[in-house]
Amino acid sequence: AQLFQLVRDVATALRPPILDAGIASAIEWQARRFEARTQIPCLVQVPDNLPTLSDAKATGMFRILQEALTNVMRHAQAHTVEISLALEDGILCMTIADDGQGFAVESGRTVSFGLVGMRERVLMLGGRLELDSEVGEGTTLRAYIPMDPTVQERHP
């Protein structure tokens, strides 16, 4: 029985079951969990007509969101968070913005293992990550993921 539970926990960690409901529902669910844990309001904007994502893309975006929200919780001292998805010209952009204390983005250097992990996930999906922040101005993270299946996803 313990082994079965362990296998289930590992499977859930690899691909959260909430993703079965689609990335939009998963983002909304994660935002509500974040609000419940932190008491920080989270505004979510997701278009109705999102295409179905591959498991790799959906899981990658969900993990990026989780890490970004963890960073907000740990470091930002934010009062609100905004999460949005937008699809334009075959590129899905997920934006996570907070109104927290921000930080000085050092020229080209990543500042945490969390950011390194997010950047690696985005690169494995053939995308790119942008980080904008200034002290006192909050932080905005954007993950751009190509929807074109011909764009090569890299697997470690």
From TrEMBL:
Residue ranges occupied by any Histidine kinase domain in the UniProt entry:
61-149
Q: Which Pfam families match?
A: HATPase_c
Q: Does the keyword Phosphoprotein apply?
A: no
Q: Which UniProt keywords apply?
A: Kinase, Transferase, Two-component regulatory system
GO function term, MF aspect, one: kinase activity
Q: SUPFAM superfamilies under this entry?
A: ATPase domain of HSP90 chaperone/DNA topoisomerase II/histidine kinase
CDD domains the record matches: HATPase_UhpB-NarQ-NarX-like
Which GO terms of type biological process are on file?
phosphorelay signal transduction system
Protein name (Swiss-Prot/TrEMBL) = Sensory box histidine kinase
Species whose genome carries this gene: Pseudomonas syringae pv. coriandricola
